[in-house]
Amino acid sequence: QVQLVESGGGLVQAGGSLRLSCAASGRTFSRYTMGWFRQAPGKEREFVARISQSGGSTYYADSVKGRFTISRDNAKNTVTLQMNSLKPEDTAVYYCAANSDGYISLAGANVASWGQGTQVTVSS
Predict the structure, then answer these.
(1) Could you give the dihedral angle defined by the CA atoms of residues 68, 1, 53 and 28, in that order, rounded to the nearest 10 degrees?
(2) Nearest to 120 by CA among 93, 83, 89
(3) Of 26, 62, 97, 98, whose Cβ has the fewest other Cβ atoms within 10 Å?
C-alpha cells in the first residue's frame, strides 16, 4: 500500500489560487494512476481530477474544468492540484488517491490508497 501525504490547503478569498501537493512513499509511484477527490460539508465525496501513470492523460469534473490542473512529477513522487479562480463552492476537504491498475473510477470505488485530506476554505 502506497502512503499518501497531502499539503497546501488553507484559507483563500474567492478568485484566489491554491496549490495542493500529494507526496507518495515508495519506488513504484509511476505505476499508480492518481486522482483528487473532495468532500464539502454535508455532501458526499466528489471526484475532482485524475491523471495517468505517465501524466499524459488527464480528466476533470465539469465543475472544475478550466480552473484546476492536475500534474505529477514521477521523479519526486508527487502529484499536484493547481486550483485557480476559486469559488466558495470549492470549499471542502481534498483527498489524494491512488490506484494500481487503470483509471480511478469517478466514484472512487477502486481507490487503493487515500491521503489524510487537507482543508480548503474559500471565502466570499
Answers:
(1) 130
(2) 93
(3) 62
